[in-house]
Amino acid sequence: MVSANVKFIKSNVNTVSGIVISVSAYIVMISGYVNAVPVNVNTISAYANSL
Q: What's the sign of the alpha-carbon dihedral 26, 31, 34, 40?
């Protein structure tokens, strides 16, 4: 009975850590996009100015 509970807890911990890892990956990806936006805006405005 106890070992079943320990296995259940371990699987939950693995699931939670997987969720945390994927969420942090999303946050990194989103921050990368946010950082890329001003660069793109600058590139587009420079291109528009050169026309």
A: negative
pLDDT band at 35 (very low <50, low <70, confident <90, very high): confident
pTM: 0.55
CA distance 11 to 22: 16
Domain spans of the chain?
A: 1-51
What the block records as the tokens of 47 is 């291109």
Cα(39)–Cα(25) distance, integer angstroms:
22
Report the Cα 36 to chain-centroid distance in Å: 15
